[in-house]
Amino acid sequence: DPNEDTEWNDILRHSGILPPKEKTKMKLRKWFYTCRKKQKAMKPYERMNREELKEAEDDFDEADRKAIEMYRQQRLQEWKSLQRMQKYGELREICGEQYVKEVTNAPEDVWVIIHLYQPSTPMCLLVNEHLNLLARKFPEVKFLKAILNSCIQNYHDRCLSTILVYKTGEIKHRFIGVAECGGMYLKVEELEWKLAEVGAIQTNLEENPKKDIINMMTLSVQNISAHEDTNTKSSNVMKPHIT
Fold first, then answer.
1. Among 29, 56, 167, 203, whose Cα sits 20 to 30 Å from the Cα of 106?
2. 220 assigned to some structural domain
3. Looking at the record's lineage, which domain of life comes first (predicted)?
4. DSSP secondary-structure letter at 166?
């Protein structure tokens, strides 16, 4: 029976030997008519590119011209938004004189991440390498770096690396020193997670990449504590009782 719901009939339908069931036909027919209806409902200019619009401009009435202008403005705003989202995409070097313009006076809807560094410090070079990768991954965020002495005088080297996170001209978070930045063995995913935690970027990482290491360290500390506790109890047992 070709109309029977069996696995074999499903295989035959999939192979095109049997025709689709009536229900499937109805769904396809309904989808087809819906698409045609939507296409007919579209204004002619919504299906035209820029050159076609220019050629057909004289054929439209006043209402259409107003609608076309609104449509153009909408597309222009979408294009500007896309351009703004893609305008950065690299870790740029600035000097102290550019700090106010590039950081403090950045657009209010843009996150700014600036790394104050020294070229001779290995940790700084590692952070710069990671930030360069993150700048490509998150082109809507402004990533900057500046040699420390050009921005802040008498800043102690033990505070390197320093990562400052800005939004609307204000510092939203600071990562100061090797430990806060993630340590000498920092991985790019770990730095991505840190920046996502303070809201500067929208990461697709599902959990802290350093979670397993933290758990292992916690477990190790617990094991050491338990071992020391056991040794203490054993020592107490071994002590002679003086009466």
1. 203
2. no
3. Eukaryota
4. E
Give residue-wise pLDDT tens across range 102-136.
999 999 989 999 999 999 999 999 999 999 999 99
- Domain of 97 in residue numbering reads as 92-198
Tokens of 103: 């950081």
Q: Where are the alpha helices (DSSP H) in 198-243?
A: 211-238
Tokens of 214: 């933290």
In a domain, 123, yes or no: yes
Q: How many CB atoms lie within 10 A of CB 154?
A: 5
Domains identified in the chain, total number:
1
Q: At 178, which CATH number? A: 3.40.30.10
> In 59-189, which ranges are E strands?
91-93, 112-117, 142-147, 162-167, 170-176
Q: HSE (CB half, 13 Å, CA atoms) of 216? A: 5
d(CA 139, CA 193): 17
* pTM for this prediction: 0.57
Helical segments of 20-147, H only: 22-41, 50-56, 62-85, 99, 122-137
Return the biggest CA–CA distance within the chain: 115
